[in-house]
């Protein structure tokens, strides 16, 4: 992999940070992933030093992120931007739970019972079918979610990610979440940075590229991001370096 390292980070920029695979290593299951104390400290320091211009932009649900962050409160976009808490603490919800959600869950129930390696994550507005514990079922899981989204005929789309296929309302993504933040204080007027690792981060990279910001892909795989960092450790180190400006 050819690595185009990003320029040195500046605390005058706006920081949009993906979570799984970017700030924390991928774990076997969604629940097993852990935001450790040193990451909490890094985010808190960056948040203070940048005047609050830090948001987590994640596929996880807001409530899930909140539980993992404990007392640390900052802007959060969850479920790929479908729900967003802004810097003033206001909550923006961009879609209702899909009417077809119950039917999709029912349709998946036999496969989930048959294959314990499949895991269904109901995030409220989206349904994610994880196959990390059953990688041989990748094609089946992806195909099933595409079929169920199409059959619902209700403005749903499938977002693929690391060993996951997710049915979600279409039209909102991490790119729209970033552009909403950038219209608001304290993000407005700052150069945007987005760091991510997964397919669902490509919308965010594209938006940041459009604004001449800094898009950084963590790890391998094709991407429209302009820069690369090899892994979670390097991503955290790059952010920590921004804080050297202020110490
Ligand atoms: O946008 P992110 O913050 O990166 O969240 C993306 C998805 O992360 C979680 O799933 C992924 O991480 C799990 C734990 O490491 C892993 O087991 C799974 O295979 C990955 O797909 C989360 O469960 C999803 O809801 C997020 O969309």
From TrEMBL:
Pathway info: Glycan biosynthesis; trehalose biosynthesis
SUPFAM superfamilies xrefs: HAD-like
EC number: 3.1.3.12
Species classification: Bacteria, Pseudomonadati, Pseudomonadota, Betaproteobacteria, Nitrosomonadales
Function: Removes the phosphate from trehalose 6-phosphate to produce free trehalose.
Pfam families associated with the record: Trehalose_PPase
Protein name: Trehalose 6-phosphate phosphatase
Cofactor section: Mg(2+)
Keywords assigned: Hydrolase, Magnesium, Metal-binding
GO BP, sorted A to Z: trehalose biosynthetic process
Organism: Sideroxyarcus emersonii
GO function term, MF aspect, one: metal ion binding
Protein origin, superkingdom: Bacteria
InterPro entries from the UniProt entry: HAD-like_sf, HAD-SF_hydro_IIB, HAD_sf, OTSB-like, Trehalose_PPase
Catalytic activity line of the entry: alpha,alpha-trehalose 6-phosphate + H2O = alpha,alpha-trehalose + phosphate
Family statement: Belongs to the trehalose phosphatase family.
Enzyme class: hydrolase
Matching Gene3D superfamilies: HAD superfamily/HAD-like, Trehalose-6-phosphate phosphatase related protein, domain 2
């Amino acid at each position: 992999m050819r690595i185009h390292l990003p320029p040195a980070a500046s605390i005058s920029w706006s920081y949009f940070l993906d979570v799984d695979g970017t700030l924390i290593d991928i774990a076997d299951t969604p629940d097993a992933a852990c935001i450790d104390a040193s990451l909490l400290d890094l985010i808190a320091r960056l948040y203070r030093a940048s005047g609050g211009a830090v948001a987590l932009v994640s596929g996880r649900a807001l409530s899930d992120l909140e539980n993992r962050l404990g007392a640390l409160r900052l802007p959060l976009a969850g479920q790929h931007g479908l729900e967003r808490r802004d810097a003033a603490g206001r909550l923006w919800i961009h879609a209702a739970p899909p009417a077809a959600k119950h039917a999709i869950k029912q349709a998946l129930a036999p496969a989930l019972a048959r294959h314990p390696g499949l895991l269904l994550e109901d995030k409220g507005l989206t349904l994610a079918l994880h196959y990390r514990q059953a990688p041989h079922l990748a094609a089946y899981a992806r195909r099933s979610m595409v079929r169920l989204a199409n059959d619902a005929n209700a403005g749903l789309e499938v977002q693929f990610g690391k060993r996951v296929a997710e049915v979600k309302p279409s039209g909102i993504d991490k790119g729209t979440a970033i552009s909403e933040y950038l219209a608001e204080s304290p993000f407005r007027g700052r150069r945007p940075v987005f760091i991510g690792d997964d397919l669902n981060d490509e919308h965010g990279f594209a938006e940041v590229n459009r604004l001449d910001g800094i898009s950084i892909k963590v790890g391998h795989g094709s991407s429209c991001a302009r820069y690369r960092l090899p892994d979670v450790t390097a991503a955290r180190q790059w952010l920590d370096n921004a804080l050297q400006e202020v110490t």
